[in-house]
Amino acid sequence: MNVLTDNFAIYAEGFLGTVELTVYASLLALALGFLMASFRVAPVASLRAFGTVWVTVLRNTPLTLLFFAVLLGLPRFGLVLPFQAFAVLALGCYTSAFICEALRSGINTVPRGQGEAARSLGMTFAQTLGVIVLPQAFRSVIPPVGSTLIALAKNSAIAGAFSVTELLGTYKTLSELGYNIIWTFVWIAVGYLIITLAISALFNLLERKWGVAR
Amino acid sequence: MTTRTTALYDVPGPTTRRRHAVYAVLSTAVLLGLAAWVLHLLFSTGQFTATKWMPFEYKGIQELLLRGLGNTLKAFAMAAVLSLALGGVLAAGRLSDHAPVRWLATLVVEFFRAMPVLVMIFFIFVALKVQPLPALVAGLTLYNGSVLAEVFRSGVNAVERGQREAAFALGMRKTQVMSYVLVPQAVRAMLPAIISQLVVALKDTSLGFLITYEEFLHAGKLIASNLDYDLPFIPVVMVISPIYIGMCMLLSWFAVWVSRREQRSPKTEAVVVAAPGPGAPLPGGEPPTAPKP
């Protein structure tokens, strides 16, 4: 029990590290995922192909391999960034593939008639997209995007093994200080549970407010 | 074909087709430029020099890589078999008629689904002082077993109600209803989702690298940190990742193929075949891998 109270600062630092990693990587993943989803439904074949390759490759890449390649590989090209930025890049790119698929299937749930009706009312492409299609797609993508972001929070543990400050990495410091290793892990587990349950609660709230009512 | 299925576009007319052709040329040019830039970067930092690629000619190093690949596949096979078994047991627990068994199974499933698999693996490896391979397999089994339990359960619940009612009306016991009627249909319907979860397990065997299990990535790291060959890190990544990604893609395509096949099969008439793809459902929520007929 005193593992937590004695080392609250270390735990707090790790916890905040994980939260930061999760938030930044989520933002990157959402932005990239949106871009890739728009590529995948674009009327231009080369963009569609690029989106498909991006999604297929990243979905089938082990995240550890991606971390390995990004954190240790990119510096070989003279790109020097803090490890945390590399971790955000790896996590964000990996998760963007899953976000892209969630968004794309959300867009595909909007019935064709909706778009046809919008166009026959004389709406432009931007209006059709912004007023008709995206709001309806948004309603049905809340649960899958929520699960994907929870998976991202859990995957951020891998960054700890590549010497980024985050929750799982705190066990090393604490075991060197000679604290009970089992209790150390119990509190790490509690930290992750807090993060995943918070995201889950947030998306349940969004779902209740805007969720699909079809 | 993608454009046909969305609400976004009409069938393009002549002006739009011309406009799209312009976009196509521009975007292709940008993408080719990007590819050329990456290639230039690879060449200019000297990633294709003979010294860096020399190690792959040696038999010892090829054997090192093959041994690593073998260890990866060994861990995957063990984790797959054990997590299917654990998933079956936990699903049976969650569908049990006895409330305490149900609560216990629910608790286990929800806990291990909410926990990062790496935390489990590190806990088993560091705190319980287990060897790397059993620690990796145990961690993967606990996580994937819990997810598979949800997949099995949602599959059983997705079988049309009439099937269960008819079986009970014929005087079958619950065990018989399950094993002769519901589970065979559920497994057929959920096979794509099960295979997709096995892809996740295969990908996650690479976590063994982080606990010094001598798997494929570990072999790559050994070669990459060799000064004799001028630290051939990028060549190693270029050799390892196609193999890793290729294995996962083959398994993913197999899931898609199974899904198509099962959709046509007359044996899945009373249940909707799940779409392939990793179903990582919200903790506490209904998994998305359970389409109701």
UniProtKB/TrEMBL annotation, chain A:
It is a multi-pass membrane protein. It is found in: Cell membrane. GO terms for molecular function: transmembrane transporter activity. GO terms for cellular component: ATP-binding cassette (ABC) transporter complex. Residues 15-203 form the ABC transmembrane type-1 domain. One of its GO terms (biological process) is amino acid transport. Keywords: Amino-acid transport, Cell membrane, Membrane, Transmembrane, Transmembrane helix, Transport. InterPro entries: AA_ABC_transptr_permease_3TM, ArtM/GltK/GlnP/TcyL/YhdX-like, MetI-like, MetI-like_sf. Pfam families: BPD_transp_1 (PF00528). The chain crosses the membrane at residues 21-41, 53-74, 80-100, 121-138, 181-206. PANTHER family: AMINO-ACID ABC TRANSPORTER PERMEASE PROTEIN YHDX-RELATED (PTHR30614:SF37), MEMBRANE COMPONENT OF AMINO ACID ABC TRANSPORTER (PTHR30614). Belongs to the binding-protein-dependent transport system permease family. HisMQ subfamily. This is Amino acid ABC transporter permease. It comes from Streptomyces griseoluteus.
TrEMBL record, chain B:
Gene3D superfamilies: MetI-like. The keyword Membrane applies. Residues 69-255 form the ABC transmembrane type-1 domain. It is found in: Cell membrane. Residues 274-293 are annotated as: Disordered. InterPro entries: AA_ABC_transptr_permease_3TM (IPR010065), ArtM/GltK/GlnP/TcyL/YhdX-like (IPR043429), MetI-like (IPR000515), MetI-like_sf (IPR035906). Residues 278-293 have a biased composition (Pro residues). It is a multi-pass membrane protein. Belongs to the binding-protein-dependent transport system permease family. This is Amino acid ABC transporter permease. It comes from Streptomyces griseoluteus.
